[in-house]
Amino acid sequence: MDHDLARLDEPSHPATGDYRHEHTRRWSATISSLDAFVFVTPEYNSSFPGVRNDS
């Protein structure tokens, strides 16, 4: 399952669950329905890459 994740653009902290944007609600519903998940990301300079600015 793939998701085009945008940078976090919610006004509240994610732990509150107060999501204003539909893409965040969809992501939350998907993740909440799973027992586990794996993030696969390329390595950049011995760490994870930054956020893309093209969204």
Strand pairing plus helix content: what structural class? mainly alpha
Largest sheet geometry: none
Percentage of residues assigned to helices: 10-25%
Number of helices: 1
Low-confidence stretches: none
Taking the alpha carbons of the first and last residues, their distance comes to 20 Å
Number of strands: 0
The overall pLDDT, averaged over residues, is: 83
Shape, please? globular
* Radius of gyration over all CA atoms, rounded: 13 Å
Strand residue percentage: under 5%
SSE order:
H
Structure description:
The structure is a single chain. The protein is mainly α. The chain is 20% helix and 0% strand. The protein has one helix and no strands. It has one helix at residues 22-32. The chain is globular, with a radius of gyration of 13 Å. The two termini are 20 Å apart.
SSE arrangement:
Elements: H1 22-32
Brief account:
This protein has 55 residues and is mainly alpha-helical. It is 20% helix and 0% strand. The protein is globular, with a radius of gyration of 13 Å.
What attributes does this structure have?
55 residues; mainly alpha; 20% helix
